Amino acid sequence: MYYANEVVEELRAGGQLALFGAGQVAFEVANCLMGKPYELKIDYCVVSQTEGNPDSVTGIPVIDLETAKKCLQKDAVILIATMEKYRIPIEDSLHKAGYSHILPLTFEGDLWSDIQGNYYRDYRLANGKPYLTLEEEIKKTETEREERPSISIYAVKCHVDKPLREDMSRFFWEIPIQAGTALTEQEICKVRDNVGDHISHKNREYCELTALYWVWKNGVSDYVGICHYRRHFELDAKMQRELWNSRIDVVLTIPILNFPSVREVYRHDHTEKDWEVMLEAIRLLAPDYVPAAIELQNGNFYYGYNMFIARREILNEYCAWLFPILEYCETHARKKEDTYQNRYIGFLAERLMTIYFLHHEKKYKIVHARKHFVEK
User: Fold this and answer.
1) Distance of alpha carbon 172 from its chain centroid, rounded?
2) CB-based contacts of 327: which residues, under 8 Å, 6+ apart?
3) What does the DSSP assignment read for 312-345?
4) What contacts 161, CB < 8 A, 6 or more positions away?
5) % helix / strand / coil in the chain, to the nearest 5?
6) Residues 6 or more apart from 125 whose CB is under 8 A from it?
7) Parallel, antiparallel, or unpaired: how do β-strands 223-228 and 231-233 relate?
8) Rounded to an integer, what distance in angstroms lies between the CA atom of residue 352 and that of residue 312?
């Protein structure tokens, strides 16, 4: 395994293995762990109460905590397969029930990202496609180039962000940029997305993309990256410097795994009509990308969070492709009453970013970096 070797060995060591959860996250964790390269046997899916939950998840019986006391040994490994916000109360309830071998495979968690990374790496290699990592490619850098390209990785923040539990000083090399500045009188960053050529007023729909637009139109660095106040690239200042000397074109995060397909999960979580509008926009504005769009929607992976680092010329080409498609989607899809669902432009852009780099995967040298998620 490339990622999380010790954890994988623990899961393979034998004994009982169970998931806590029976929803979409548990469905995806089960499919991942039962498939290659893991091929693990999962005994049960445990829930607080069976009412409102399915009887089984991919053939794994769903039981409540009381039943688990009879079926699961106290040394069983239990993987929390839910959204991150439920993790702490679930851990408390499992500890009270006498279980101590608990691992979080929550949706946003770093460990789940690593587990998906092994799955995706195996998938690509099995299909004759390379899987390059940032760490491996930087190690291959032998000679220092004469020029010193500038690199700017922006961490997108907003005036409504919640306080974080961690000391974030290790990401000192990031440049904070305030997104949606036009929608508030608060100024929380020196760099703000309402200066110069901007679309800051669209932040409720466009999310971090208003910052990306600003960087595209106003930034000057040779390498440019976008991350979030809670989601950061796992690289340090030394790796960032070595990126200057590498031949890397694009850095993406480990992709997100969706079962039964990317389109089906989008339909389940968001508004299906918006997906149709996105496909229509691609057919009209970028027809060469239709095969990549079909590959994405029928596949099981997409690159999330609109996070990437790329050479300036690639960022320029990508943004010139992306924003007209998003404008079409904005014009032909309706705003949503629900605040979360009204971020539909940001959600669609994650899938569009995947389509773009699928289309260009033979043209660009694309590497993968781990992502660190920070709890509120």
Assistant:
1) 22
2) none
3) HHHHHHHHHHHHHHHHHHHHHS---SSTTGGGHH
4) 229, 230
5) 45, 15, 40
6) 131
7) unpaired
8) 19
pLDDT digits 0-9 by tens, 81-137: 999 999 999 999 999 999 999 999 999 999 999 999 999 999 999 999 999 999 999
Asked if 213 contacts 318 with a C-beta cutoff of 8 angstroms, the reply is no
Lookup result for tokens 């229509």: 280
Tokens of 227: 């991350």
pTM for the model stands at: 0.95
Cα–Cα distance for residue pair 182/160, rounded to 1 Å: 13
d(CA 326, CA 113): 27
Max Cα–Cα distance, the chain, nearest Å = 67
Half-sphere exposure (Cβ direction) of 253: Cα atoms closer than 13 Å: 30
In the chain, the amino acid numbered 238 is K
**Of the candidates 126, 176, 182, which has an alpha carbon nearest to the alpha carbon of residue 156?**
176
Greater confidence, 310 or 142?
310
Q: Are 350 and 303 in contact (CB under 8 A)?
A: yes
What residue ranges define each of the domains in the chain, with the CATH number in brackets? 5-115 (3.40.50.720), 132-373 (3.90.550)
Confidence class of residue 240 from pLDDT cuts 50, 70 and 90? Answer: confident
- Cα(152)–Cα(226) distance, integer angstroms: 9
Query: How far is the C-alpha of 64 from the C-alpha of 126, rounded, in Å?
Result: 38
Q: What is the mean pLDDT of residues 67-71?
A: 94
Roughly what angle, to the nearest 10 degrees, separates helices 312-332 and 209-218? Answer: 130
Amino acid at 61: P
